[in-house]
Amino acid sequence: QVQLVESGGGLVQPGGSVRLSCTVSGIIFSLNAVGWYRQAPGKQRELVALIRSGGSTNYADSVKGRFTISRDNAKKMVNLQMNSLKPEDTAVYYCNGDVFNIMGLRNYWGQGTQVTVSS
Q1: Using 50, 70 and 90 to split pLDDT, how confident is the model at 8?
Q2: At a CB cut-off of 8 Å and minimum separation 6, what does 25 contact?
Q3: CB-side exposure of 24: number of CA atoms within 13 Å?
Q4: What element of type H or E holds 109?
Q5: 63 has which bridge partners?
Q6: pLDDT of residue 116
Q7: How far apart are CA 1 and CA 37, in angstroms?
């Protein structure tokens, strides 16, 4: 069974850094576009960063220049390096990916990981 599993969240001080990882478990043929989303309390889930299979990326304006998304296809992993964190970055972060497996092309969500930016 295919699952996306996030890791790396936690409590970090303003101005600090944290690295999130999204790892795909299970047998897959390919990992296509993967996005990191976040949802703060009382707010809608929003796309933070996206990386396509070819490596091209997109970022929300609020994180440009601070966050970097990258992928390691051999490890079936997508990372989100988050620098210069602000309290408004506090949210549950989710990865979402298009996976091609024996079931065909499917979209999966991870369970989320909490990032809290506070002094």
Answers
A1: very high
A2: 2, 3, 4, 5, 76
A3: 29
A4: strand 104-109
A5: none
A6: 98
A7: 22
